[in-house]
Specification:
Elements lengths: L1 H7 L1 H5 L1 H33 L7 H8 L2 H33 L6 H15 L5 H14 L1 H8 L2 H7 L3 H20 L3 H7 L4 H14 L1 H37 L2 H42 L17 H28 L15 E3 L11 H9 L4 E8 L5 E3 L6 H4 L10 H5 L19 H8 L4 E6 L8 H11 L6 E4 L3 H5 L2
Parallel strand pairs: 1-2, 2-4, 4-5
Antiparallel strand pairs: 2-3
Length: 493
């Protein structure tokens, strides 16, 4: 299977130096510009729709906002132009390889730019729309791996009729995409209109349907195999490490963390490589089935007197792009830029009232267990004492966890601190105290995220405001989430 795919990628291999240089620079430069623009558009769209957290339920209402629709349309058009130029360069690079010319990367870029700008007109609007759809459906294995999440699975859990409509729509799109699989080779190299190129591509596909479908299926099967091999190898290495070092507990936590980052790295790698690899396979088939006498486009051999200037510009762009992308990565480690969008979230592990199966609930001991167990969050409950201090306890009455019948709202902090919140669990935790929220924040800062549930009463004095003030005092706004079943308490946040 891999040997057959290797034969189809000979063209990519012979042009790999120029393509690698172009792809790295082009994608890093594009990411440096597109990433902040995407974040600005996302936050602006949420602001215009008056949405602070974009849950699955809010997506439909957000997408009905005319300004959001206009923003998405503009974003898709820019993405189409970005991919359009990339395909233009790849066409010229592969053509230079086929004709055995000595064109440099700058000459290929120049020729690609000439063809790119000559194709931008209203008559070719269908080319931009078709391009985005074709890239996604040809690289179906890549994009399924990128977009896979539990949220997407939940969104697809629809009624049978809607599922049937989705399946039929996908099949129709696939027929359209496969029929036009050679359209961009023809469009760029044979200098005919997009619709004429599509008709010619459809005719070629009908004659060689088995070869076209086989190549694209083989490509996606190899992508799936590659993903599986990466995960299997990672698992084998980490399991072997656990066995050799006899550190199963630490090894398992390292494994989960490493797997998460490796999976993201694999996704980025596939995004960077899927277009040139898939297009190389398509181009190999195009040259095999097409009449090369129809090719009219030629590489422009511009003077290389400014070669050093071009190289200098290239290195400047590359350095700026690497610097900006490194900055984005470091910033994303400190704060998830998509933390207000549910569809981008992965399943998180929350320790309910701390590690409450290993230690007394809502105590510092339970929270230490949650940290050691590498949970993503701890969930805790807060109440207000008679002297307005914020303490961590679930029940309004202390009897269940301390054996003393009394209400938190009627006790001062000193009185709460006299209670034993550990003996009911086991003798090992005798003397464990009910902690204040301040003590918990000091323990968890920088170690674990905190979900604070406010348990208000009619006697409280701005409990929500005091919780917020404590979080701000420790600078933990990005490490804490506040929840409550009381609407008034939520409004006070």
């Amino acid at each position: 299977m891999f040997g057959s795919l290797k034969n189809k990628l000979e063209m990519l291999q012979s042009s790999k130096r120029d393509i690698i240089i172009f792809e790295i620079t082009y994608k890093l430069a594009a990411t440096a510009v597109i990433y902040p623009a995407m974040l600005i558009m996302l936050h602006l769209g949420m602001k215009l729709s008056n949405v602070r957290y974009l849950t699955n339920e809010y997506i439909a209402s957000t997408l009905t906002n005319p300004l959001v629709i206009a923003g998405i349309a503009a974003g898709l058009m820019l993405l189409a132009l970005y991919c359009f130029f990339e395909l233009s360069f790849l066409v010229m690079c592969f053509e230079a390889d086929r004709t055995k010319s000595r064109a440099t990367i700058f000459q290929c870029v120049y020729t690609a730019a000439r063809e790119f700008f000559s194709k931008i007109n209203i008559k070719n609007i269908w080319a931009f729309l078709f391009e985005i759809i074709a890239i996604i459906f040809i690289n179906v294995a890549v994009f399924c791996n990128i977009l896979y999440s539990q949220t997407i699975i939940n969104l697809l859990k629809t009624d049978i009729l809607l599922k049937l409509v989705i399946v039929i729509a996908i099949l129709i799109i696939y027929v359209v995409v496969i029929s036009g699989v050679f359209v961009f080779n023809i469009f760029y190299l044979e200098n005919i209109s997009f619709l004429q190129a599509y008709k010619k591509s459809a005719g070629m596909v009908r004659k060689h349907l088995k070869g076209v479908l086989g190549s694209l299926a083989l490509y996606n099967i190899c992508i799936i195999a590659f993903i599986g091999i990466v995960y299997v190898l990672l698992s084998a290495i980490l399991i072997a490490g656990v066995k050799l070092l006899d550190m199963a507990y630490i090894g398992s936590t390292v494994y989960l963390s490493a797997l998460r980052y490796v999976r993201k790295a694999v996704k980025f790698f596939m995004v960077y490589t899927c277009i040139p690899v898939s297009f190389a396979i398509i181009t190999e088939k195009y040259y095999k089935y097409a009449d090369v006498a129809d090719i009219k486009t030629e590489i422009l051999y511009k003077s290389e007197k400014r070669h050093n200037l071009y190289k200098c510009i290239y290195y400047v762009i590359l350095c700026i792009s690497v610097g900006l992308n490194s900055f984005y990565v470091v910033k994303a480690f400190n704060k998830n830029p998509f933390d207000r969008v549910a569809v981008f979230h992965e399943t998180k592990v929350t320790a309910h009232r701390g590690g409450s199966s290993s230690a007394p609930e809502n105590t510092l001991a339970a929270f230490r267990h949650a940290i050691n167990d590498r949970a993503d969050y701890i969930e805790l409950d807060v109440r207000q004492t008679k002297d307005d201090e914020i303490v961590v306890i679930h029940d309004a009455n202390t009897r269940r966890t301390t054996g003393v019948d009394g209400y938190i709202r009627n006790m001062t902090l000193d009185e709460v601190k006299e209670l034993d919140a550990g003996s009911y669990f086991s003798e090992e935790y005798t003397g464990e105290k009910i902690p204040t929220l301040r003590e918990v924040l000091e323990l968890t800062q920088g170690k674990i995220l905190v979900n604070i549930e406010i348990k208000p009463t009619q006697y409280d004095n701005d409990i929500a405001g005091k919780v917020v003030a404590l979080i701000e005092e420790y600078g933990m706004e990005d490490e804490c989430e506040i929840t409550s079943f009381d609407f008034k308490a939520g409004k006070g946040i």
